[in-house]
Amino acid sequence: MDTKIDSTLDCYGMLCPLPIIKISEKLKEMKTGEVLELISTDEGIKEDIVAWCDTTGNEYLGLEEDDEVIKVFVKKTVA
Q1: CA distance 5 to 73
Q2: Residue 11 catalytic?
Q3: What is the pLDDT of residues 16-34, one digit of tens each?
Q4: Percent of the chain topping pLDDT 70
Q5: DSSP designation for 1
Q6: I need a surface site. Which of 3, 14, 37, 76 has the fewest CB within 10 A?
Q7: Of these residues, 9, 14, 16, 50, which one is catalytic?
Q8: CB-based contacts of 62: which residues, under 8 Å, 6+ apart?
């Protein structure tokens, strides 16, 4: 990902709904415009994060997969 990452959240080994709960909590601490990288092993995050961003208004920037590790990128767009 070419975008500057402002913070990383490690949710390795956590299952739904924990990664979504954690990302919601973490984004509350971040400034508008900052980018969060979420590290997960839960396959469900691929669909969950898109739906969560649609619901909350934050911007889904995409994901990267490397074996079992899924990295999801979200830009905080809601104050």
Answers
A1: 8
A2: no
A3: 899 999 999 999 999 999 9
A4: 99
A5: -
A6: 3
A7: 16
A8: 1, 72, 73
